[in-house]
Amino acid sequence: MAHTLLDKVWDAHTVRTLPSGQTQLLIGLHLVHEVTSPQAFQMLREAGLPVRMPGRTFATLDHIIPTTSQRRPFGDPLAEEMTVHLLRNCKDFGVPLFDLDSGRQGIVHVIGPELGLTQPGMTIACGDSHTSTHGAVGAIAFGIGTSQVRDVLASQCLAMTKPKLRQVRVEGQLSRGVYAKDVILTIIQRLGVKGGVGFAYEYAGSVFERMSMEERLTVCNMSIEGGARCGYVNPDETTFEYLRGRPYAPAGTAFDRAVPWWRGMATDTEASFDDVARLDGHTIAPVVTWGINPGQSVAVDERIPDPSLAPPEDRSTWHEALQFMGLEAGRPIVGTKVNVAFIGSCTNGRLSDLRAAAEVARGRRVAKDVRALVVPGSQQVAKAAETEGLHEVFRDAGFEWRQAGCSMCLGMNDDKLVGREVSASSSNRNFKGRQGSPTGRTLLMSPAMVAAAAVTGVVADVREVLR
Amino acid sequence: MSPADSRRNVAGRAIALPGNDIDTDRIIPARHLKSVTFEGLGEHVFGDERQAVPEHPFNRPRFQGASILVVGQNFGCGSSREHAPHALRLWGIRAIVGGSYGEIFFGNCTALGIPCLTAAPEELAWLMTEVERHPQRQLSVDLEAGEGRFGDRAFPVWLPAGPKSQLVSGTWNALGVLLEAGDTIERTAHALPYVAGY
Fold first, then answer.
1. What is the domain extent for residue A119?
2. CATH number for the domain including A355?
3. Which residues of chain A have a pLDDT value below 50?
4. pTM of the predicted model as reported, rounded to 2 decimal places
5. Distance from B42 to chain A by nearest Cα, in Å?
6. Which of A6, A127, A241, B122 has the most neighbouring CB atoms within 10 Å?
């Protein structure tokens, strides 16, 4: 009988079937951050329970920390309080913490893979919806709420229902100027923001096979924006080479023994799926969102769509989106004025993202009146970028070079839109108010497209800018 | 479990919130997450929208005191923040009837004992209109029977088997049940090569 990676990982981690019919699923890696954990630790204290497997639990600071200076105490007393709580909780419960002075702090979904904590065949949970990111290495990884953070801390388990599985196949060759971000935004546009509810997504086909690990991380990161709580790519040579030599990956002969197990967790050739969706890679163009959810997007050379052409159930949302965004149906998206350019986040804050943006920024200047920031996804990404001189490329072009954190993806620190500003953003959500201003507007795109918008002051086709 | 610890039936006045794909950032904007407790979130539920739209359902006097929320499709999509169901709960919401839900939000609601029931689109459209017309009328949902009732009309509501069992039996706080597995948890872990050592 042929099995999928989802089947194999699920079976290997099943502790038992619960009276409710759900699976008691063991969580192999639990990642913790400052925003969704304090109440969970408090519940453990009240119940007098320890952290069940502190050695399989790792914490960092990412959501609320400032990116101008990481020096403590933070200027924002609430951010400082949350930091103090995380530090105390990690100390009291014996949970390892990648603190600001560790050289390894960063966005939880950047540092997990980067440190080799994230490995094929694992189950991974974190109190953050973008935990789906870790599926890029061939893990089953999903976001959870704070009650479930408590459950994992105390029992290392979750009560879960196994999702259905949809294979998303993208074959063909991507054009120059088309990035992993464009692939996943196109998938979400085609399958819809709720198309993946009840499903896990397996990304397969030549486009994903050729992708680097960092590109796969971008794709899997946004599975949740398509409604799928987790998404993965089967582990292959790219995965194994990515993991080799990372601090928490097995080393030496242990690595050699790990590879066959990892490879064995991949979906069998004959396995079947609950659904299969197919896309043609060479038809994918650079994508820009025009609305208030990540499925409301067009190719950069297309026009803003007419709500009267929307599926009936989406029509009112499209109207609402255009009104909020102040955009007009039928107009080209190219040329839309931007006020802010943000490069960073768990979607696109890795070294290859910064390189792609720097390629556009090099030798150019940020347009007058545009505020442009680059926020590396982790301290290690920042260091690697600085070694290559990317920080100088960005600074010379007029971008601000910041320190690692979630920053303007969700505006929990000082990095926020002001009023109705329009942001060209490499992040993952264009929800109303997402970037810190209730009336602020977000256009999602690839880091290279953000850089192109920064230097031209408007939404621009990166293929033209690079020509 | 005593009947008080079951969510077999929920009844109360309803509040209708039309629209699809309402995300958890809208339910509770991120700046309200800067706290180490869930206290005080109730007053900020849909805070930004209520500020911008004075006639927002959560502002309207006729819906104050309502305890069952009626929503459209994909309600609670996006961020995993449990602050969203806490904010709704602290405002007074005890159950939700809608077309579909963001999965993490659904799980978070279940973990707090808030059933997220699904109804057919045509029933929902009818219910939205009727709740708007009769804000004082009781809406009741019976989880076991799979039946909603508004006035003299009954309609089917649905909940997946697992969460239904948790809510009906009063075990929506899963931790107690999970801990009952005892050292089977460690045995499962140590059978995994990445835990035991490759």
1. 5-160
2. 3.30.499.10
3. none
4. 0.97
5. 17
6. A127
